[in-house]
Amino acid sequence: MLLGCTADDFTGTRDLGNTLTCAGIRTTLMTGMPGN
């Protein structure tokens, strides 16, 4: 399963990642803008 999520602040992103990780789903946190 692939799941993408966009958050408007770091706190929301961290909280969602923590919730998913606690549910046994591997997560990756990426910050910043992708390069061209």
Automatic annotation (TrEMBL):
Residues 3-31 form the Four-carbon acid sugar kinase N-terminal domain. It comes from the Bacteria. Gene3D superfamilies: Putative sugar-binding, N-terminal domain (3.40.50.10840). Pfam families: SBD_N. InterPro entries: 4-carb_acid_sugar_kinase_N, 4-carb_acid_sugar_kinase_N_sf. This is Uncharacterized protein YgbK (DUF1537 family). The lineage of its organism: Bacteria, Pseudomonadati, Pseudomonadota, Alphaproteobacteria, Rhodobacterales.
